[in-house]
Amino acid sequence: MRFVGIDWGNKKHAVCMVDGEGKVVAQAMFDHDAGGLSELFAWITDHAGDCDVKVGMETPRGPLVEALLDREVAVFAVNPKQLDRFRDRFGAAGAKDDRRDARVIADSLRTDERAFRAIEPSLPWVAELRELSRMREDLVHERVALVNGIREQLGRYFPQMLELVTDIDAAWVHALIQAAPTPAQAAVLPRAKLERLLGGVRRFTVDEARALLKSPGFKVSKATTVSASRRTQSLMRRLGLIHDEIHMCDQAIERLLAQQTSPEPSESSEGDDAAGQQKEQRDVVVLQSLPGVGSTILATLLGEAWELLRHRDYNALRAYAGVAPVTRQSGKQRSVVRRYACNTRLANAVFNWARCVLSRDAVSKAKYSTLRQRGHSHGRAIRAVADRLLSVACAMLRSGKEFDPGMRELLTSAG
Q1: Where do the H-state alpha helices sit in 199-221?
Q2: Which is more confidently placed, 131 or 273?
Q3: Which of 14, 55, 270, 329 could form a disulfide with 98 if both were Cys (CB 3.0 to 4.6 A apart)?
Q4: Predicted model pTM
Q5: What residues contact residue 304 under an 8 Å CB cut-off, 6+ apart?
Q6: Phi then psi for 77, rounded to 5 degrees?
Q7: Where are the domains of the chain?
Q8: Fold of 2-119
Q9: Exposure pattern of 56-93 as b/e (b: 16+ CB <10 Å)?
C-alpha cells in the first residue's frame, strides 16, 4: 500500500508518498496546469508500482480530484483544522511548509484514515444541482446588498420614498423610482400615472401616496440629489439583472428536480444503472414529500449532502448540517454549545426548513413550544426541530415511504 499526500496550491502542488510503515518513498512539486497534472499521475504510477494507492488532500473537489476519481484512485479529504492538529506530530514549533504538509497528509491517512472522508464521484445531476443552488444563494446575497445600497441612497436625498415603501425589492417600487427618481419629479407626478404605477397596492390610497411624496424632505444640494439619484438608478438596474438571474436559477432547479422525479428511468439506462436511477428518483420523491421542503431547500439538501443522504448516515448528516451540539466536559464541568464546524450553506438551508415547517407540522411545532417553555433560545429550539427533521428524513429514506403525518410510530421513534 502507498499513501500519497497532496498539498493543494494555486500554482504548484507539493506531493509526498509514504509506504505502509510511514517511510517517505518520494517527494516532488508539480505545476497546477494540464502538463503538471499529467506528470503527477505518471509520478504516482511510477513510484507506486503494483501497490494500491490512497490519496489524501484538503480540498474535496477540483480538477485534480476529478482526474484522480476518473482513474479509479481512492481519494480522501481531511478537514484543515484536523490537519493542523496532525501537523503537531512532526514539530511542536508550529513551522509550516508545503512539502511537510504533504507528508503530514500522507502519514495521517496511513494511521488515521477514519479522520478522512472518502470522496466518491458526483452524479452529473447532483453536481449541476449543487452549482445552481450555490449560484442562487450568492445571487440572493447580492440582492440583499443592492437593496441595502438603494435604501442608503434614498435616505440621503429622498426620505419620503422610504416612508412610502417597505419592500424596495417590489416590482411597483422599481417602476415608481424609475418614473420619479427625485423628490421634484415625484411631487409633479400625475395622479393617473401614479395610480397605474401603484397597481394593486392596498396599503394606502393614491391620494395618501401623493401627499406623502409631496411632503417636505431634506434640504440638500442639487449636486447631491443628482449624484445620489444617478447611483440609485444604477443600483436599481443591477437589481433587475439579479432578479432575472435568480429567476433563471429557479427555473433550472425546477427543471432538474422534475427530471429526477420522473417515474421512468432514461432510455439509455440498463440493468444496475436503471435500478440505481430508480432508487435515486425515489429518494428525491421521498425528500420532496417532507413538509416545508421547497425547491430551494431540496436543491441545497441534495447538492450539499447527497452522499450522506444516500447512505442514510444520520449522525454524520446532523453534524455536517450544524444541528448536532458540541459537548465540552472537564472533570465535573460540562457545557453544551452550538456546532460551528459545519457546512454553512447546508446549515442555513436546514435552519430555514425547520423555521418554515413550524406552521405545517404539528409535532415539530409542539417540540419547538416545549423547548421554548424550558427556557431555550429560539435558535436552540429551531436546531432541535431541524435535528428531528433530519432523523425523520433518514428514517423515510430507509423505509422508502413518503411523509405521512399519520405515521405516529415513525415520527415518535425519530423524535
Answers
A1: 206-214
A2: 131
A3: 14
A4: 0.82
A5: 130, 133, 320, 343, 345, 346, 349
A6: -115, 145
A7: 2-119, 128-252, 272-414
A8: Nucleotidyltransferase; domain 5 (3.30.420)
A9: bbbeeeeebbebbbeeebbbbbbeeeebeebbeeeeee
